Amino acid sequence: MVIPISNIAARRIFLARQGLSASPARALTKQGLLDLIQELGFVQVDSISTVERAHNQILFSRNQTFRREHLRQLLEEDRALFEHWTHDASIIPCEFYPYWKHRFSRREAGILTKWAKWQGEGFDRAFDETYARIAQGGAIRAREVKEADHKSGGWWEWHPSKTALEFLWHTGKLAISGRENFQKIYDLSERVIPGHHLGQEVSHDDFVDWACRSALTRLGFATHGEIAAFWDLVTPEEAKAWVAANREGLDEVEIECMGGARARASFAFQGLSPDPADWPEPPARIRVLSPFDPLLRDRNRAERLFGFRYRIEVFVPEAKREYGYYVFPLLEGDRMIGRIDMKADRKAGTLNVARLWLEPKVRASAGRMARLEAELARVARFAGVGDIVYAEGWTGG
Fold first, then answer.
1. Cα–Cα distance between 239 and 126 in angstroms, integer?
2. What is the rounded CA–CA span in Å between residue 323 and residue 40?
3. Alpha-carbon gap, residue 357 to 391, rounded angstroms
4. In the predicted model, what is the mean pLDDT of residues 79-103?
5. Angle between helices 299-306 and 7-17 (to 10 degrees)
6. DSSP 289-305
7. With pLDDT > 70 as the criterion, what percentage of the chain qualifies?
8. What is the pLDDT confidence band of residue 379, given thresholds at 50, 70 and 90?
9. How far apart, in Å, are the Cα atoms of 253 and each of 210, 250, 263?
10. Do residues 166 and 158 lie in contact, with contact meaning Cβ atoms separated by under 8 Å?
11. Which of 87, 274, 381, 383 could bridge to 5 as Cys pair (CB 3.0-4.6 Å)?
12. Dihedral sign for Cα atoms in the order 86, 87, 89, 90
C-alpha cells in the first residue's frame, strides 16, 4: 500500500528533520550545538561572507543563541567535529569519520586521473615531500609551501605543494587542524582525528547501510537518488540496492508537490506519520536562511515541497542575474516567502538592504514587514553591525 503524504505534512516533516521546527530562541550550550550538527548531519562551509559565512548563518538560523566560539572549540580543541567533503566542503561530526575512510579510498584513483588532466604531467611531484615536511615540522598553511616564482590563480593554477596538500587532505592522509583568517591549516590526520575514530574500521556493507539509513533519517522521505545525494558517499545504484534489501522496514509514500505537479514516489521508514498534526508547527517568525542552507541544498526537492525556485547567481554575469549576486532566502513558518539582497558593511557598521522580492500571493502586510525587520535586526547583531540601512524602493513596490 502506498501512503499519501500531503504537502503540508511533507514540509513539516522535512523542517523538523532539518532542525527548523524548534524555537530559535532556546538556550544552546556547546553540547547542544554538537547535538544539532549531528542531527543535521553536516553544515556546509563556504568562503563568501556577504553577511556571515555559510556555516555560521546555517546554525544561527536554527538558534539565535549560537556562539561561534563553541563551534571553534568543537572543531579545534575538543575534536568532536572535522572538516571534509559531502557534496561540498562541510563540518561533520568526528564520530562519522570511519565512514569517510571509505570515501577516501573510493576517490583516490579518480582524483589522480582527473587532476592529471588539468594539472599536467608531474602534478604529483610534491606529494611525498609535502607529507614529510608536515610529519617532521608540524601543521602548515598553503601559503607556507608556495613556490617563490608561482603566480596565484584559481584552483587550476595550484602550485605543486598546494596540490599536494589538497590531495593528501581529500584522501584522508591530512586533516584540517584549524583555520586562520579562513585559511586551512593542514596537519597529519593522526594529530587531528581522535584515535578511537581514526582507527575504527567498518565493513563495506555496514558503510553502505549507515550512509543510506542515516540519510533517509535526516530527509524523512526520499527516492534512492536523494538518499545517495545526501552525503555523496554512495552511488545511486548502491542506494537502490539498499532500498530493495530493506523493503520490509520501509513504506512506499507519495509526496504531494506544490503547484499541481505530479506526486513524488518515495520511501520512508515504517511508522512515519502522514498526519501534519503529529509534526511540530514551525515558529511563525521570519528567518533569513543561508543560500547554502541544507533545507534548500537539493534545489529540485525544495521547489517540489515549497514551490520555491532558488539558484545562487554568484557565477552568473551581472547583466544576466534575475535577482542578485548573493540573495538570501526567507522562511516564514513552514513557507518560503521570498528573498532579500543585503550586505554587511563592517567599516560603516551597517546592514545595507538593497531589495526584497516576495513570492507571488505573499502580501507585504504590516505584520509581515514588522517580523522581517525584527529578523533583520537579529541578523545585524549577529553580523556585528548596528544600523540597518534600507535602499530607496527596497520593497520593490
1. 37
2. 29
3. 14
4. 97
5. 130
6. PPTT-TTTSSHHHHHHH
7. 95
8. very high
9. 22, 9, 9
10. yes
11. 274
12. negative
Predicted TM-score of the model (pTM): 0.93
**Cα 387 to Cα 234: distance, rounded to the nearest angstrom:** 47
pLDDT category, 157, cuts 50, 70, 90?
A: low
- Give the mean model confidence (pLDDT) for residues 227-235: 97
Q: How far apart are CA 116 and CA 92, in angstroms?
A: 29
Given a cut of 50, whether residue 150 has pLDDT beyond it is no
> Which residue carries 524555537 as its cell?
23
The C-alpha cell at 209 is 547501510
CB of 277 closer than 8 Å to CB of 13: no
Give the count of beta carbons closer than 10 Å to the beta carbon of residue 252. Answer: 12
Q: Average pLDDT for residues 182-207, to the nearest whole number? A: 97
> From the CB of residue 269, how many other CB atoms can be counted at a distance below 10 Å?
14
Distance CA 145, CA 340 (A): 41
Kindly report, residue by residue over 289-312, the tens digit of the pLDDT. 999 999 999 999 999 999 999 999
Angle between helices 97-119 and 160-170 (to 10 degrees): 150
Q: Which residue has the cell 602534478?
A: 123
- Could you count the other beta carbons within 10 Å of the beta carbon of residue 156? 7
Q: What was the pLDDT predicted at 118? A: 65
**In the numeric block, which cell numbers belong to residue 16?**
523538523
* Predicted pLDDT at 155: 42
